[in-house]
Amino acid sequence: MTAAAAFMTTLLLFDTDSGFFGDDGVALTMLMRSPLASSVVGVTVVSGNVWAAKGAEYMERNLRVLKRAKLPVVIGAQEPLVHTAAMSKKEGALQFAGAFGEPMDLAAPSKANAVSFIIDTIDANPGKVTFVALGPMTNLAVALRLRPDLARKIGGLVFMGGAVSVPGNVTPYAEFNFWFDPEAAQVALRSAIPRKIMFGLDVTNQAPIRKSHFDEIVAVKTAITELYREDMGSQFPGFYKNPEAVTYMWDALVAAFLIDPTLATTSETKYLDVDTQFGAGYGRVIRLERTIAPMATPVQVMMGIDIERTRELYRQALTSTR
Where are the domains of the chain? Predict the structure, then answer.
């Protein structure tokens, strides 16, 4: 099945668990330097890579650098629905624990919160909002629990997370975003959102970033490439310490697809669920038993992408001097 049909959207809600820069920062940069920039109505932040309070600081800084400082950045769910740092310590060796590996850093309560922002934006624009989920889907899950009717008002959900037919990247079975909050991912997958598009490890594993790609980008000196250099060069994956390191485009593939849907080449449509039984398979993608969630809509799982064209879009966005 081809995935090249255009994904029509009017407004984008950018939901992120941004670390210092990384793939979340790249995805934001790609959208802000594309014709879709004016479609982004706000950035909602969730805990995942780091705690949400720190993620919001990073996103606000990124938007200032991109000269889009007026775009709202709103903190949402600061902890997963069920999963905790204490639970993660019982899960054996983890490739990455995200915020669970750091002291808890919670934001002070605010009248403005991401869940209210999400609900109000969708209510005001029924059928016109695409929810772009680049981290754990806690914010979306809370909104859907508060307002189940909201699902059919969302134009579409495009997310990075999960793994259908390949191993996980935090445990042998689970991808990080789904592992951090499996219950939230389950709420989203079991929902009646009309269109769901998944960029899981099945496709993101096809988009590696190696030091040669990194060097090409940081050779162009801008404020954005300096953030990119500091993060990927000195922090993760640490190309300066380990030139053989490999990372992946991950969230950037979602941004690339939104900008140019023809970049996606193949997909499979499946009814999906998430294993929420605490144990070895916690956060694993499984087949949905449809009698459990009869209103659930299927997921278009992206399986192939034009990597060369995607890589060029990625490079151009990061190295732009405008």
Answer: 11-207+249-319, 210-245
Helix, coil or strand: residue 37: helix
pTM (two decimals): 0.96
Burial zone of 292 (CB within 10 Å; 0-12 exposed, 13-18 middle, 19+ buried): exposed
270 neighbors 260 (Cβ within 8 angstroms): no
If you average pLDDT over residues 30-57, what whole number do you get? 97
Task: Report the CATH architecture of 11-207+249-319.
Answer: Alpha-Beta Complex (3.90)
Specify whether the backbone of 242 is left (phi greater than 0), alpha (psi in -120 to 50) or beta: beta
Helix boundaries (H) for the chain: 22-32, 52-65, 85-88, 114-124, 138-146, 176-180, 182-189, 201-204, 211-218, 223-228, 251-259, 307-319
Report the sign of the C-alpha dihedral through residues 68, 77, 79, 127, in that order: negative
pLDDT in tens, 106-135: 888 887 799 999 999 999 999 999 999 999
CA dist 47 and 43 (Å) reads 13
